[in-house]
Design goal:
Chain lengths: ~270, ~500
Amino acid sequence: MNESSALIARLKRIATTGMPTQGDGRADDAWLTQGMAKAQLHEVFATVDDAASGAGFAVASVLAARAAPVMWLRTEASERQGGRLHATGLVEMGLDVTSLVLGLVEDEADLLRAAADAARCHGLGTLLIESWGRAPRIDLTATRRLMLAAEASGVTILSLRIGAEPVPSAAASRWQVAACRSRPLEADAPGKPAFDIELLRRRGGQAGLRWRVEWDRDAYFFDQIAFETVIIEDPGGDTAALSGAGVSVAADRAAADNAAASVRRTG
Amino acid sequence: MRPHLFVGRAETPIAFVETVSGGVRLKALDREAMRAGLVPGLTLADARAQVPELEVYEHDAHADHEWLERLADGCQRYTPSVALDEPDGLILDIAGCVHEFEGERRLAADLEERLARRGLLVRHAFGDTPDTARALARFAGAPAPDEKRAVKRLPVAALGLDEDATTALSRAGLKTVGDVMARPLATIAARFGEEAAMMIRRLDGSVKGPIVARRSVPKIGVERRFAEPIARTEYALEVIAELAAEAAEQLAQRHEGGRRWEVRLFRADGLVQRLRIETGQPIRDVALLMRLFRERIDSLADPLDPGFGYDLIRLDVALAERLDASQLKLEGGEAQKGEVAQLVDQLGTRLGRARVRRFSARDSHIPEQAELMLPAAEAPAPTPWTAPETGEPPLRPIYLFDPPQPIESMMAEVPDGPPHRFRWRRTVHDVAHSEGPERIAGEWWRRQDIPTRDYYRIEDRRGRRFWIFRHGLYSEMETPRWYLHGVFA
């Protein structure tokens, strides 16, 4: 009896997701302490304005998963638009930069070719692929290849998509990252890195979950924060003037409940 | 000059001219033109008067040099040590290289035949030293029973002295090198300079002039010659794999691994194609090598074109380093490192070594100079980075703009504070939290006039964290500019 109900549940899942083997059995918030599921492809989306948050979140999840060494692939366009990687800053996020190899490629085609090679390298812990803009080559086929390579080699692949809209892909999960106001330190200094995370999609799991987290570099985990101390802004003139790109205002985000599966996100 | 262009043409005299001060003069002549009595240095007008049918071309020294270089490349099928003897000579060091051709005469015949196919006239000579060979090839007249006597019969011009000295020698009644050699060296040196004496010593073999080879002789070289040129790239790759295995064997005996490998494919028509790879660590794993060579072939701008086929394939190990058998059996973490190193080599071969990098700390407090990105294949031993202080948020951004990006401060700031509002990339940011200033002075011991930078870590109302600085103190200048130097996570 039990067996058949389990089977029905499984079939139902297959019928709804089309993916027979997924659902890794991890708790929804396992990533807070363990990072992303290993040997899978995950996508991290961030707007151009939140590029650093996207990258920071990716680095932090590598660290939470303890999945070094890291190969970070980026294009020359990323370097021009987003600035170059700053090792001291990465060290201060907690990353041991001696375990980081940076690959700078000319264009997207090279990016995918290099990624295909790196994804097969058993010695890597994480492969981080950073792309800016729409990057139409990173499509369903490309992501499926990466996913298969990741499953075969055990390398966790994070595809950091900055300034891109989600398109169909074979990734195991898809995240949207935005900067979030930190808890200020004494003397009004900006606090630890804080992120507004939304799980847009997860194979065989619940989607639409949101968290507001702070990266604890010393303990290597994401600390969920409740924003009791958020300063309420006046929603007047200046913030409205800012939001040319339809950016949500921190104040109403703070007002929203953490766990609520809100559809609001930045960008 | 491309002599093959002229092969099979009617025998009109040809001259190459160059414009020198005072007019157009003949620079080089073909055999017909020589026979007609022309000599280099004559003005073109005089030459035309003597030989009206003369065909004239502009002399291009650079093209000549390139052509000679290509011939030298081709001659490396005989010996790795080939030197240019400008403008029209090549010196081959064939010591120990002649067994393949059952003697030097066969080698010379083979060389002449190949060059004749390109329409080149060749004069060759053998010598115990590069200088005698060179002098004999250029000036030899009547045959002589042995090298020593042949040298003695050379005209004094073979000494390669300047025109005045040569004329002076002739006037003194010294017509041949032998005449000069018969004199005491000291008098020659006193009268015609140390150079003349040195040349005599070189020609009589008491001093051996060096061959300035165009490339260093490789540590290990293996090659395959084919009676029938091979025209399939796949087969050529198989041959390369065999050669790599041979080289690897030799390396293994010496407990070494190669770091710089070069394959040269000599085409039957004289063209030489090269494939070079470099690795960060010494290797002698054939499978890995072949992967890198295939990578290299894929990344070639012009694909490998066998044309009429390759008749010689050569593989050289130009740089080898110690690699003990024990190093190959790395375990655990080391094996993992080895795989990453292989990936670095593979990507470096395809993308270019400089594109695959590692960070290396550097002693400078200027943020953009405090670190280096070195090619990962040659990065030194990892340097320790200063560990961040517990409990502190990151004080340095993860993306750094180089050069820093100018921002526009939109609200008057207090003298030692950050702006309250600024515009960057057409977006206005309101500062909610800030920390600073962190004062970073310019490297005044390098240059005096570099303004001080006051850095602030700020967070805007939407939670974005930036690293901005004011370039210059108010005491240093009237209106210092603001820059955004990086973004925090």
